[in-house]
Amino acid sequence: MSDSDTSALLKADRIFFNGSIVTMNEGEAAPPEAVAVRGEKIVFVGDLAEAEAQWKGNSTRMQDLRGECLLPGFIDAHGHMGGVGLQAMLANLLAEPDGKVASVEDVVGTLSAWAKTDVGKRSKWIIGMGYDDSLIGGHPTLEDLERVSDADGQNRPVLAVHQSAHLGVVNAEGLRLLGYDLGAPQPLEETVFDPAFDLAVSGLNPLDSAGLYAAGRKEYNGFGFTTAQDGGVKRPILDYLRGLQNSTGFLIDLAVYFKASELVTDADWDRLDVKDDYFRGMRLAGVKLVLDGSPQGRTAWLTEPYFVQPVPGKEDGYSGYRILSDEDANDKVYQAFRRNIQVIAHVNGDAAIDQFIAAVDAACQRLGEPNAVHRRPVAIHAQTARRDQIEAFARLGIIPSFFTMHTFYWGEWYRSTVLGGARAENISPTAWALENGLRYTAHHDAPVALANSIAILSSQVTRVTRTTSAGGGTVIGAEQRVSVRDALRSLTSNAAYQYFEEKTKGTIETGKLADLVVLSVDPLTLAEPENLKSWEDVRVVETIRRGTTRFGSGEVKESEAGPEVANLGALVQYHC
Protein backbone atom coordinates (compact mmCIF):
# COMPACT_ATOMS: atom_id res chain seq x y z
CA MET A 1 0.00 0.00 0.00
CA SER A 2 1.41 3.38 -1.03
CA ASP A 3 1.89 6.31 1.34
CA SER A 4 -0.96 8.15 -0.44
CA ASP A 5 -3.27 5.17 0.06
CA THR A 6 -2.35 5.04 3.75
CA SER A 7 -2.92 8.77 4.09
CA ALA A 8 -6.37 8.47 2.49
CA LEU A 9 -7.36 5.80 5.00
CA LEU A 10 -6.50 8.17 7.83
CA LYS A 11 -8.75 10.94 6.51
CA ALA A 12 -12.46 11.43 7.15
CA ASP A 13 -15.14 9.95 4.94
CA ARG A 14 -17.18 13.12 5.33
CA ILE A 15 -17.24 16.36 7.23
CA PHE A 16 -20.52 18.05 8.20
CA PHE A 17 -20.52 21.85 8.34
CA ASN A 18 -22.58 25.02 7.81
CA GLY A 19 -25.51 24.12 10.02
CA SER A 20 -26.70 23.88 13.60
CA ILE A 21 -24.79 21.11 15.35
CA VAL A 22 -26.55 20.08 18.55
CA THR A 23 -24.20 17.62 20.23
CA MET A 24 -26.31 17.05 23.39
CA ASN A 25 -22.97 17.09 25.20
CA GLU A 26 -23.65 18.89 28.45
CA GLY A 27 -20.01 19.86 28.88
CA GLU A 28 -19.40 21.80 25.66
CA ALA A 29 -18.63 25.52 25.85
CA ALA A 30 -20.15 26.42 22.47
CA PRO A 31 -21.68 24.56 19.52
CA PRO A 32 -19.02 23.19 17.14
CA GLU A 33 -18.69 24.22 13.50
CA ALA A 34 -17.94 20.78 12.09
CA VAL A 35 -18.16 17.04 12.70
CA ALA A 36 -15.90 14.55 10.93
CA VAL A 37 -16.75 10.88 10.47
CA ARG A 38 -14.48 8.01 9.44
CA GLY A 39 -15.86 4.53 9.12
CA GLU A 40 -18.37 3.89 11.93
CA LYS A 41 -16.96 6.52 14.31
CA ILE A 42 -16.94 10.24 14.92
CA VAL A 43 -13.28 11.33 14.71
CA PHE A 44 -13.54 15.09 15.22
CA VAL A 45 -15.90 17.68 16.68
CA GLY A 46 -14.82 21.32 16.58
CA ASP A 47 -13.75 24.20 14.32
CA LEU A 48 -14.24 23.82 10.57
CA ALA A 49 -10.75 25.06 9.71
CA GLU A 50 -9.19 22.49 12.04
CA ALA A 51 -11.45 19.75 10.69
CA GLU A 52 -10.34 20.49 7.13
CA ALA A 53 -6.67 20.76 8.06
CA GLN A 54 -6.59 17.46 9.93
CA TRP A 55 -9.27 15.33 8.32
CA LYS A 56 -10.01 16.47 4.78
CA GLY A 57 -8.57 14.25 2.07
CA ASN A 58 -9.08 13.85 -1.67
CA SER A 59 -12.02 11.48 -1.13
CA THR A 60 -13.56 13.24 1.85
CA ARG A 61 -17.12 14.38 1.23
CA MET A 62 -17.76 17.89 2.50
CA GLN A 63 -21.44 17.76 3.50
CA ASP A 64 -22.91 21.24 3.56
CA LEU A 65 -25.86 21.20 5.96
CA ARG A 66 -27.17 24.44 4.40
CA GLY A 67 -28.48 25.65 7.72
CA GLU A 68 -30.11 22.35 8.71
CA CYS A 69 -29.53 20.69 12.07
CA LEU A 70 -27.24 17.77 12.93
CA LEU A 71 -28.14 15.77 16.06
CA PRO A 72 -27.25 12.42 17.60
CA GLY A 73 -29.28 9.62 16.05
CA PHE A 74 -32.56 9.03 17.87
CA ILE A 75 -32.82 6.01 20.16
CA ASP A 76 -36.10 4.12 20.51
CA ALA A 77 -36.72 3.80 24.24
CA HIS A 78 -39.64 1.43 23.64
CA GLY A 79 -41.31 0.05 20.54
CA HIS A 80 -41.93 -3.06 18.48
CA MET A 81 -40.05 -2.99 15.18
CA GLY A 82 -41.70 -6.14 13.83
CA GLY A 83 -45.10 -4.69 14.65
CA VAL A 84 -44.23 -1.52 12.74
CA GLY A 85 -43.67 -3.58 9.60
CA LEU A 86 -46.90 -5.44 10.27
CA GLN A 87 -48.85 -2.22 10.66
CA ALA A 88 -47.55 -1.00 7.31
CA MET A 89 -48.80 -4.19 5.67
CA LEU A 90 -52.32 -4.41 7.15
CA ALA A 91 -55.42 -2.25 6.71
CA ASN A 92 -54.74 1.16 8.26
CA LEU A 93 -57.56 1.89 10.72
CA LEU A 94 -55.83 4.90 12.29
CA ALA A 95 -57.53 8.28 12.56
CA GLU A 96 -56.06 11.61 11.47
CA PRO A 97 -53.25 12.56 11.22
CA ASP A 98 -51.89 9.02 10.75
CA GLY A 99 -54.83 7.60 8.80
CA LYS A 100 -58.27 8.49 7.50
CA VAL A 101 -60.69 6.46 9.64
CA ALA A 102 -63.27 8.73 11.30
CA SER A 103 -66.24 6.38 11.81
CA VAL A 104 -67.24 2.75 12.17
CA GLU A 105 -68.33 2.90 8.53
CA ASP A 106 -64.78 3.86 7.64
CA VAL A 107 -63.53 0.79 9.52
CA VAL A 108 -65.85 -1.42 7.47
CA GLY A 109 -64.87 0.25 4.21
CA THR A 110 -61.12 0.18 4.91
CA LEU A 111 -61.16 -3.52 5.86
CA SER A 112 -63.23 -4.35 2.78
CA ALA A 113 -60.83 -2.46 0.52
CA TRP A 114 -57.79 -4.16 2.07
CA ALA A 115 -59.33 -7.58 1.48
CA LYS A 116 -59.06 -6.87 -2.25
CA THR A 117 -55.37 -5.90 -2.19
CA ASP A 118 -52.69 -8.42 -3.17
CA VAL A 119 -51.65 -8.90 0.46
CA GLY A 120 -55.29 -9.10 1.56
CA LYS A 121 -56.15 -11.70 -1.06
CA ARG A 122 -53.29 -13.92 0.11
CA SER A 123 -54.24 -13.64 3.80
CA LYS A 124 -56.47 -16.18 5.55
CA TRP A 125 -57.87 -13.36 7.73
CA ILE A 126 -59.00 -9.85 6.88
CA ILE A 127 -57.04 -7.73 9.37
CA GLY A 128 -56.77 -4.05 10.22
CA MET A 129 -54.95 -2.20 12.97
CA GLY A 130 -55.47 1.04 14.83
CA TYR A 131 -59.14 1.97 15.24
CA ASP A 132 -59.78 4.41 18.09
CA ASP A 133 -63.19 4.06 19.75
CA SER A 134 -62.79 7.50 21.34
CA LEU A 135 -62.92 9.10 17.89
CA ILE A 136 -65.24 6.89 15.84
CA GLY A 137 -68.21 6.65 18.22
CA GLY A 138 -67.43 3.33 19.88
CA HIS A 139 -66.07 -0.08 19.00
CA PRO A 140 -67.07 -1.85 15.77
CA THR A 141 -69.43 -4.75 16.47
CA LEU A 142 -69.51 -8.33 15.32
CA GLU A 143 -72.29 -7.32 12.96
CA ASP A 144 -70.15 -4.56 11.47
CA LEU A 145 -67.42 -7.07 10.71
CA GLU A 146 -69.94 -9.52 9.29
CA ARG A 147 -70.62 -6.91 6.61
CA VAL A 148 -66.93 -7.00 5.71
CA SER A 149 -67.07 -10.79 5.44
CA ASP A 150 -70.28 -10.73 3.40
CA ALA A 151 -68.80 -8.24 0.93
CA ASP A 152 -65.70 -10.41 0.63
CA GLY A 153 -67.87 -13.42 -0.23
CA GLN A 154 -65.43 -16.01 1.16
CA ASN A 155 -66.62 -16.23 4.78
CA ARG A 156 -63.15 -15.29 5.96
CA PRO A 157 -62.50 -14.40 9.61
CA VAL A 158 -62.14 -10.66 10.27
CA LEU A 159 -60.16 -8.88 13.01
CA ALA A 160 -60.18 -5.15 13.80
CA VAL A 161 -57.40 -4.30 16.27
CA HIS A 162 -57.80 -1.36 18.66
CA GLN A 163 -55.04 1.28 18.55
CA SER A 164 -53.81 0.17 21.97
CA ALA A 165 -53.13 -3.35 20.59
CA HIS A 166 -54.70 -4.67 23.79
CA LEU A 167 -58.23 -5.09 22.39
CA GLY A 168 -59.96 -6.21 19.24
CA VAL A 169 -63.23 -7.25 17.63
CA VAL A 170 -63.73 -10.38 15.49
CA ASN A 171 -66.58 -11.64 13.37
CA ALA A 172 -68.51 -14.89 13.80
CA GLU A 173 -66.09 -16.99 11.75
CA GLY A 174 -63.22 -15.62 13.79
CA LEU A 175 -64.93 -16.56 17.04
CA ARG A 176 -65.56 -20.06 15.69
CA LEU A 177 -61.90 -20.58 14.76
CA LEU A 178 -60.84 -19.36 18.19
CA GLY A 179 -63.26 -21.69 19.95
CA TYR A 180 -65.06 -18.75 21.54
CA ASP A 181 -68.80 -18.62 22.09
CA LEU A 182 -70.70 -16.48 19.60
CA GLY A 183 -71.92 -14.38 22.51
CA ALA A 184 -68.43 -13.70 23.90
CA PRO A 185 -68.11 -10.11 25.18
CA GLN A 186 -66.53 -7.84 22.61
CA PRO A 187 -64.14 -6.25 22.21
CA LEU A 188 -61.92 -9.12 23.29
CA GLU A 189 -59.44 -7.88 25.89
CA GLU A 190 -55.87 -8.68 26.92
CA THR A 191 -55.24 -12.44 27.35
CA VAL A 192 -58.55 -13.25 25.62
CA PHE A 193 -57.60 -11.01 22.70
CA ASP A 194 -54.02 -12.32 22.29
CA PRO A 195 -54.97 -15.65 20.64
CA ALA A 196 -57.09 -13.80 18.07
CA PHE A 197 -54.18 -11.54 17.15
CA ASP A 198 -51.73 -14.45 16.97
CA LEU A 199 -54.03 -16.61 14.86
CA ALA A 200 -54.86 -13.78 12.45
CA VAL A 201 -51.19 -12.86 11.91
CA SER A 202 -50.24 -16.48 11.36
CA GLY A 203 -52.68 -16.45 8.43
CA LEU A 204 -50.58 -13.98 6.45
CA ASN A 205 -48.83 -15.43 3.42
CA PRO A 206 -45.12 -16.13 4.17
CA LEU A 207 -44.18 -14.20 1.03
CA ASP A 208 -45.63 -11.11 2.68
CA SER A 209 -44.68 -11.65 6.31
CA ALA A 210 -41.01 -12.45 5.65
CA GLY A 211 -40.23 -8.78 5.01
CA LEU A 212 -41.80 -7.30 8.15
CA TYR A 213 -38.57 -6.42 9.93
CA ALA A 214 -37.07 -4.80 6.84
CA ALA A 215 -40.23 -2.70 6.48
CA GLY A 216 -40.12 -1.77 10.17
CA ARG A 217 -36.46 -0.79 9.94
CA LYS A 218 -37.13 1.53 7.01
CA GLU A 219 -39.90 3.32 8.90
CA TYR A 220 -37.68 3.71 11.97
CA ASN A 221 -34.85 5.15 9.87
CA GLY A 222 -37.31 7.48 8.14
CA PHE A 223 -38.06 9.04 11.52
CA GLY A 224 -34.38 9.42 12.45
CA PHE A 225 -33.95 6.34 14.65
CA THR A 226 -30.60 4.58 14.55
CA THR A 227 -31.39 2.27 17.47
CA ALA A 228 -34.67 0.35 17.66
CA GLN A 229 -36.38 -1.98 20.10
CA ASP A 230 -38.53 -5.06 19.83
CA GLY A 231 -40.04 -5.16 23.29
CA GLY A 232 -41.62 -8.41 24.44
CA VAL A 233 -40.88 -11.23 21.97
CA LYS A 234 -41.50 -14.92 22.56
CA ARG A 235 -39.10 -17.79 21.81
CA PRO A 236 -40.17 -18.51 18.19
CA ILE A 237 -39.60 -14.92 17.09
CA LEU A 238 -36.34 -14.66 19.04
CA ASP A 239 -35.15 -17.73 17.14
CA TYR A 240 -36.32 -16.13 13.90
CA LEU A 241 -34.44 -12.93 14.72
CA ARG A 242 -31.32 -14.99 15.42
CA GLY A 243 -31.71 -16.38 11.90
CA LEU A 244 -31.86 -12.88 10.45
CA GLN A 245 -28.92 -11.84 12.58
CA ASN A 246 -26.77 -14.68 11.28
CA SER A 247 -27.84 -14.34 7.63
CA THR A 248 -28.32 -10.73 6.54
CA GLY A 249 -27.86 -8.92 9.84
CA PHE A 250 -29.72 -5.69 10.63
CA LEU A 251 -29.19 -2.22 9.17
CA ILE A 252 -30.15 -0.68 12.51
CA ASP A 253 -29.15 -1.53 16.08
CA LEU A 254 -32.03 -3.67 17.38
CA ALA A 255 -32.33 -4.23 21.14
CA VAL A 256 -34.64 -7.18 21.84
CA TYR A 257 -36.44 -7.85 25.13
CA PHE A 258 -37.76 -11.33 25.83
CA LYS A 259 -41.23 -11.77 27.27
CA ALA A 260 -40.80 -12.74 30.92
CA SER A 261 -44.03 -14.75 31.01
CA GLU A 262 -42.19 -17.35 28.87
CA LEU A 263 -39.68 -17.94 31.66
CA VAL A 264 -40.96 -20.56 34.07
CA THR A 265 -37.94 -22.56 35.25
CA ASP A 266 -34.34 -21.75 36.15
CA ALA A 267 -33.35 -23.48 32.92
CA ASP A 268 -35.51 -21.04 30.96
CA TRP A 269 -33.76 -18.10 32.59
CA ASP A 270 -30.30 -19.60 32.21
CA ARG A 271 -30.93 -20.20 28.52
CA LEU A 272 -31.24 -16.46 27.84
CA ASP A 273 -28.17 -15.16 26.04
CA VAL A 274 -28.30 -11.51 27.11
CA LYS A 275 -25.49 -9.40 25.64
CA ASP A 276 -24.06 -5.92 26.17
CA ASP A 277 -22.81 -5.61 22.58
CA TYR A 278 -24.52 -5.86 19.21
CA PHE A 279 -23.58 -8.65 16.82
CA ARG A 280 -24.59 -7.98 13.22
CA GLY A 281 -26.95 -5.26 14.43
CA MET A 282 -28.84 -7.11 17.19
CA ARG A 283 -28.57 -8.03 20.85
CA LEU A 284 -30.86 -9.60 23.43
CA ALA A 285 -30.92 -6.76 25.95
CA GLY A 286 -33.17 -8.04 28.75
CA VAL A 287 -36.68 -9.14 29.66
CA LYS A 288 -40.07 -7.46 29.61
CA LEU A 289 -42.85 -7.82 32.17
CA VAL A 290 -46.47 -6.94 31.39
CA LEU A 291 -48.30 -5.94 34.57
CA ASP A 292 -51.48 -4.35 33.20
CA GLY A 293 -53.28 -3.13 30.11
CA SER A 294 -54.27 0.03 28.28
CA PRO A 295 -55.65 3.22 29.87
CA GLN A 296 -57.24 4.42 26.64
CA GLY A 297 -58.87 1.00 26.33
CA ARG A 298 -59.70 1.08 30.06
CA THR A 299 -57.91 -2.13 30.95
CA ALA A 300 -54.97 -0.48 32.79
CA TRP A 301 -54.87 -1.29 36.53
CA LEU A 302 -55.67 1.81 38.61
CA THR A 303 -55.95 2.39 42.35
CA GLU A 304 -59.10 4.48 41.81
CA PRO A 305 -62.07 3.73 39.50
CA TYR A 306 -62.24 4.92 35.93
CA PHE A 307 -63.90 8.32 35.58
CA VAL A 308 -66.57 6.89 33.29
CA GLN A 309 -67.25 3.22 33.86
CA PRO A 310 -66.97 1.07 30.73
CA VAL A 311 -70.07 -0.97 29.92
CA PRO A 312 -71.25 -3.62 29.56
CA GLY A 313 -69.87 -6.35 31.77
CA LYS A 314 -67.86 -4.22 34.23
CA GLU A 315 -68.69 -4.06 37.91
CA ASP A 316 -69.45 -0.79 39.65
CA GLY A 317 -66.23 0.95 40.68
CA TYR A 318 -64.22 -0.89 38.01
CA SER A 319 -60.54 0.13 38.00
CA GLY A 320 -58.95 -2.29 35.54
CA TYR A 321 -57.04 -5.39 36.48
CA ARG A 322 -53.66 -6.93 37.10
CA ILE A 323 -51.88 -9.38 34.80
CA LEU A 324 -49.56 -11.04 37.36
CA SER A 325 -49.88 -11.82 41.04
CA ASP A 326 -47.57 -9.96 43.39
CA GLU A 327 -45.69 -13.22 44.00
CA ASP A 328 -45.11 -13.74 40.28
CA ALA A 329 -44.05 -10.12 39.71
CA ASN A 330 -41.62 -10.25 42.65
CA ASP A 331 -40.12 -13.53 41.47
CA LYS A 332 -39.64 -12.37 37.87
CA VAL A 333 -37.80 -9.21 38.93
CA TYR A 334 -35.66 -11.11 41.42
CA GLN A 335 -34.74 -13.83 38.89
CA ALA A 336 -33.65 -11.16 36.43
CA PHE A 337 -31.72 -9.09 38.98
CA ARG A 338 -29.76 -12.02 40.35
CA ARG A 339 -28.60 -12.79 36.80
CA ASN A 340 -27.82 -9.14 36.03
CA ILE A 341 -30.53 -9.01 33.38
CA GLN A 342 -32.22 -5.67 32.74
CA VAL A 343 -35.99 -5.56 33.37
CA ILE A 344 -38.45 -3.33 31.56
CA ALA A 345 -42.07 -3.43 32.73
CA HIS A 346 -45.28 -2.38 30.99
CA VAL A 347 -47.05 -0.36 33.69
CA ASN A 348 -49.76 2.11 32.68
CA GLY A 349 -52.00 2.28 35.74
CA ASP A 350 -50.77 3.49 39.11
CA ALA A 351 -51.69 0.17 40.77
CA ALA A 352 -49.42 -1.64 38.30
CA ILE A 353 -46.71 0.94 38.98
CA ASP A 354 -47.07 0.23 42.72
CA GLN A 355 -46.64 -3.46 42.00
CA PHE A 356 -43.45 -2.87 39.98
CA ILE A 357 -41.98 -0.54 42.61
CA ALA A 358 -42.67 -3.15 45.28
CA ALA A 359 -41.10 -5.92 43.16
CA VAL A 360 -37.93 -3.89 42.54
CA ASP A 361 -37.70 -2.96 46.22
CA ALA A 362 -38.20 -6.59 47.29
CA ALA A 363 -35.51 -7.84 44.90
CA CYS A 364 -33.04 -5.24 46.16
CA GLN A 365 -33.71 -6.21 49.77
CA ARG A 366 -33.36 -9.90 48.95
CA LEU A 367 -30.01 -9.25 47.25
CA GLY A 368 -28.82 -6.92 50.02
CA GLU A 369 -28.67 -3.88 47.74
CA PRO A 370 -29.73 -0.34 48.71
CA ASN A 371 -31.32 0.33 45.31
CA ALA A 372 -31.33 -0.75 41.64
CA VAL A 373 -29.53 2.27 40.19
CA HIS A 374 -26.84 0.11 38.59
CA ARG A 375 -29.49 -2.22 37.12
CA ARG A 376 -31.52 0.53 35.42
CA PRO A 377 -34.98 -1.11 35.49
CA VAL A 378 -37.48 0.72 33.28
CA ALA A 379 -41.13 1.58 33.94
CA ILE A 380 -42.59 1.53 30.43
CA HIS A 381 -45.39 4.05 29.75
CA ALA A 382 -46.00 5.04 33.41
CA GLN A 383 -48.97 7.09 32.23
CA THR A 384 -50.64 7.60 35.58
CA ALA A 385 -47.58 7.76 37.83
CA ARG A 386 -48.31 9.71 41.00
CA ARG A 387 -45.84 12.18 42.48
CA ASP A 388 -44.97 9.75 45.30
CA GLN A 389 -44.26 7.07 42.71
CA ILE A 390 -41.91 9.37 40.80
CA GLU A 391 -40.11 9.93 44.11
CA ALA A 392 -39.90 6.14 44.56
CA PHE A 393 -38.42 5.83 41.05
CA ALA A 394 -35.69 8.26 42.09
CA ARG A 395 -35.06 6.43 45.37
CA LEU A 396 -34.82 2.99 43.74
CA GLY A 397 -33.17 3.93 40.45
CA ILE A 398 -36.14 3.09 38.19
CA ILE A 399 -36.10 4.92 34.86
CA PRO A 400 -39.53 6.08 33.67
CA SER A 401 -40.03 5.85 29.91
CA PHE A 402 -43.15 7.86 29.15
CA PHE A 403 -45.46 7.35 26.16
CA THR A 404 -45.80 11.13 25.96
CA MET A 405 -47.79 11.08 22.72
CA HIS A 406 -50.78 10.08 24.87
CA THR A 407 -51.10 13.81 25.58
CA PHE A 408 -51.84 14.34 21.89
CA TYR A 409 -53.77 11.22 20.92
CA TRP A 410 -55.86 10.70 24.04
CA GLY A 411 -55.53 13.80 26.21
CA GLU A 412 -59.14 14.84 25.72
CA TRP A 413 -60.32 11.23 26.14
CA TYR A 414 -58.48 11.06 29.47
CA ARG A 415 -60.23 14.23 30.62
CA SER A 416 -63.73 13.24 29.58
CA THR A 417 -63.79 9.49 30.09
CA VAL A 418 -60.72 7.68 31.37
CA LEU A 419 -59.39 9.64 34.34
CA GLY A 420 -60.99 13.06 34.65
CA GLY A 421 -59.62 15.98 36.67
CA ALA A 422 -56.08 16.09 38.03
CA ARG A 423 -55.34 12.50 37.09
CA ALA A 424 -55.82 13.39 33.42
CA GLU A 425 -53.82 16.62 33.64
CA ASN A 426 -50.79 14.78 35.01
CA ILE A 427 -50.46 11.91 32.56
CA SER A 428 -46.85 11.38 31.49
CA PRO A 429 -45.53 13.56 34.35
CA THR A 430 -42.22 14.57 32.77
CA ALA A 431 -41.79 17.72 34.87
CA TRP A 432 -42.11 15.72 38.10
CA ALA A 433 -39.42 13.37 36.76
CA LEU A 434 -37.07 16.29 36.14
CA GLU A 435 -37.79 17.75 39.59
CA ASN A 436 -36.62 14.46 41.07
CA GLY A 437 -33.45 14.31 39.00
CA LEU A 438 -34.60 11.42 36.83
CA ARG A 439 -33.14 10.81 33.36
CA TYR A 440 -36.50 9.96 31.85
CA THR A 441 -36.97 8.77 28.27
CA ALA A 442 -39.91 9.01 25.90
CA HIS A 443 -41.10 6.60 23.23
CA HIS A 444 -43.64 5.99 20.45
CA ASP A 445 -44.66 2.38 21.29
CA ALA A 446 -45.10 1.76 17.56
CA PRO A 447 -47.24 0.30 16.11
CA VAL A 448 -49.65 1.87 18.63
CA ALA A 449 -48.58 5.20 17.14
CA LEU A 450 -46.30 5.86 14.20
CA ALA A 451 -42.59 5.85 15.10
CA ASN A 452 -42.67 9.63 14.76
CA SER A 453 -39.73 11.18 16.58
CA ILE A 454 -40.93 14.75 15.96
CA ALA A 455 -44.31 13.92 17.49
CA ILE A 456 -42.57 12.50 20.57
CA LEU A 457 -40.63 15.74 20.98
CA SER A 458 -43.56 18.08 20.37
CA SER A 459 -45.85 16.14 22.71
CA GLN A 460 -43.51 16.85 25.63
CA VAL A 461 -43.00 20.52 24.81
CA THR A 462 -46.57 21.47 23.86
CA ARG A 463 -48.86 18.83 25.44
CA VAL A 464 -51.48 19.90 22.91
CA THR A 465 -54.31 17.42 22.40
CA ARG A 466 -55.69 16.09 19.15
CA THR A 467 -59.17 17.17 18.21
CA THR A 468 -61.54 16.76 15.30
CA SER A 469 -62.63 20.39 15.55
CA ALA A 470 -61.23 23.02 13.19
CA GLY A 471 -60.00 25.12 16.10
CA GLY A 472 -57.26 22.72 17.17
CA GLY A 473 -56.56 21.02 20.48
CA THR A 474 -56.03 22.32 23.99
CA VAL A 475 -53.12 22.00 26.41
CA ILE A 476 -53.37 19.19 28.96
CA GLY A 477 -51.24 19.55 32.07
CA ALA A 478 -49.33 22.74 31.18
CA GLU A 479 -47.22 22.39 34.33
CA GLN A 480 -45.81 19.09 33.01
CA ARG A 481 -44.38 20.67 29.84
CA VAL A 482 -40.60 20.56 29.45
CA SER A 483 -38.02 22.43 27.39
CA VAL A 484 -37.01 21.40 23.89
CA ARG A 485 -33.56 20.39 25.15
CA ASP A 486 -35.09 18.17 27.85
CA ALA A 487 -37.29 16.57 25.22
CA LEU A 488 -34.27 15.96 22.98
CA ARG A 489 -32.45 14.28 25.86
CA SER A 490 -35.30 11.76 26.12
CA LEU A 491 -34.47 10.49 22.60
CA THR A 492 -30.69 10.80 22.74
CA SER A 493 -28.45 10.94 25.81
CA ASN A 494 -31.06 9.69 28.29
CA ALA A 495 -32.14 6.87 25.98
CA ALA A 496 -28.52 5.81 25.53
CA TYR A 497 -28.20 5.72 29.33
CA GLN A 498 -31.34 3.58 29.59
CA TYR A 499 -29.65 1.01 27.32
CA PHE A 500 -26.26 1.17 29.14
CA GLU A 501 -24.89 2.61 25.88
CA GLU A 502 -23.96 6.13 26.96
CA LYS A 503 -20.26 5.51 26.21
CA THR A 504 -20.97 4.90 22.52
CA LYS A 505 -24.22 6.73 21.70
CA GLY A 506 -26.50 9.60 22.62
CA THR A 507 -24.16 12.57 22.07
CA ILE A 508 -21.93 13.80 19.26
CA GLU A 509 -18.44 13.29 20.66
CA THR A 510 -15.11 12.10 19.31
CA GLY A 511 -14.84 8.33 19.56
CA LYS A 512 -18.57 7.64 19.66
CA LEU A 513 -20.51 5.86 16.94
CA ALA A 514 -21.44 7.98 13.93
CA ASP A 515 -25.17 7.62 14.61
CA LEU A 516 -26.59 10.92 13.40
CA VAL A 517 -29.78 12.55 12.18
CA VAL A 518 -30.23 15.69 10.08
CA LEU A 519 -33.39 17.72 10.73
CA SER A 520 -34.77 20.44 8.49
CA VAL A 521 -35.04 22.82 11.46
CA ASP A 522 -33.07 23.16 14.69
CA PRO A 523 -35.75 22.43 17.32
CA LEU A 524 -33.93 24.63 19.83
CA THR A 525 -34.70 27.69 17.69
CA LEU A 526 -38.45 27.20 17.46
CA ALA A 527 -40.51 30.27 18.32
CA GLU A 528 -43.40 29.75 20.74
CA PRO A 529 -42.54 26.10 21.45
CA GLU A 530 -45.89 25.62 23.19
CA ASN A 531 -47.55 26.01 19.77
CA LEU A 532 -47.97 22.69 17.97
CA LYS A 533 -47.82 24.45 14.60
CA SER A 534 -44.24 25.50 15.25
CA TRP A 535 -43.25 21.82 14.83
CA GLU A 536 -44.94 21.32 11.47
CA ASP A 537 -41.85 22.25 9.44
CA VAL A 538 -39.53 19.95 11.39
CA ARG A 539 -38.81 16.83 9.37
CA VAL A 540 -36.09 14.21 9.15
CA VAL A 541 -33.82 14.89 6.17
CA GLU A 542 -31.21 12.18 6.64
CA THR A 543 -30.49 9.30 9.03
CA ILE A 544 -26.92 8.02 9.36
CA ARG A 545 -26.26 4.81 11.24
CA ARG A 546 -22.63 3.96 11.99
CA GLY A 547 -21.45 6.31 9.28
CA THR A 548 -23.73 5.00 6.53
CA THR A 549 -26.82 6.83 5.31
CA ARG A 550 -29.92 4.69 5.85
CA PHE A 551 -32.50 7.34 4.95
CA GLY A 552 -32.27 10.39 2.73
CA SER A 553 -29.97 11.47 -0.06
CA GLY A 554 -27.15 9.02 -0.54
CA GLU A 555 -28.99 6.15 1.14
CA VAL A 556 -27.10 2.90 0.68
CA LYS A 557 -29.26 0.07 -0.59
CA GLU A 558 -28.52 -3.37 0.84
CA SER A 559 -30.46 -6.61 0.84
CA GLU A 560 -32.48 -7.47 3.93
CA ALA A 561 -34.30 -10.47 2.51
CA GLY A 562 -33.30 -12.95 5.20
CA PRO A 563 -34.64 -16.47 5.66
CA GLU A 564 -38.20 -17.15 4.56
CA VAL A 565 -40.63 -17.78 7.40
CA ALA A 566 -43.20 -20.53 7.14
CA ASN A 567 -45.39 -19.35 9.99
CA LEU A 568 -45.25 -16.07 11.88
CA GLY A 569 -47.92 -16.84 14.44
CA ALA A 570 -45.57 -15.68 17.19
CA LEU A 571 -44.18 -12.69 15.31
CA VAL A 572 -46.03 -9.97 17.14
CA GLN A 573 -47.06 -11.67 20.35
CA TYR A 574 -46.47 -8.59 22.44
CA HIS A 575 -48.29 -6.13 24.62
CA CYS A 576 -47.66 -2.52 23.68
Explained architecture:
This protein is α/β, with parallel strands linked by helices and 576 residues long. The protein has a domain at 3-67: Urease, subunit C, domain 1, CATH 2.30.40. It is built from 23 helices and 22 strands. The strands form four sheets. The chain has an eight-stranded parallel β-sheet. Helix 15 (350-367) packs parallel to helix 16. The chain is globular, with a radius of gyration of 24 Å.
Give a quick summary of the entry.
By secondary structure, the protein is of the alpha/beta class.
Order of strands across the biggest sheet? 7-13-14-15-16-17-18-19
CATH homologous group name of the domain at 3-67: Urease, subunit C, domain 1
Give the overall shape: globular
- Low-confidence runs of at least 5 consecutive residues: 1-6, 564-570
Number of strands: 22
Strand-pairing-aware structural class: alpha/beta
Count of separate DSSP helical elements = 23
| Percentage of residues in strands | 15-25%
Radius of gyration, in Å, reads 24 Å
Gap from first CA to last CA? 53 Å
Mean pLDDT across residues: 91
Q: For this structure, what is the CATH class of the domain at 3-67?
A: Mainly Beta
Helix content: 25-40%
* CATH architecture verdict of the domain at 3-67: Roll
**What is the third-level CATH name, the topology of the domain at 3-67?**
Urease, subunit C, domain 1
What's the main sheet like? 8 strands, parallel
